[in-house]
Design brief:
Strand content: under 5%
Number of strands: 0
Radius of gyration: 21 Å
Structural class: mainly alpha
Distance between the termini: 67 Å
Largest sheet: none
Number of helices: 1
Order of helices and strands: H
Low-confidence stretches: none
Amino acid sequence: MASPFMLFPEPETVTLKRTCLAQMIISLAALTSTGVLLTKVVTVMNGLY
C-alpha cells in the first residue's frame, strides 16, 4: 500500500521535475537541429568537390 505522505508531493519536487523535463526537451531539440544542420553542411561540402 502506498504511503499516505506521498499523495501530495512537495511543490519544490514538482517544480524540479518540470524544470528537468523542460531542459530534457530543449536539449533533445538542440541535438536534433544540430544533427540536421551537420547533415546539410556535409551535403554542401560534398557538392563543392
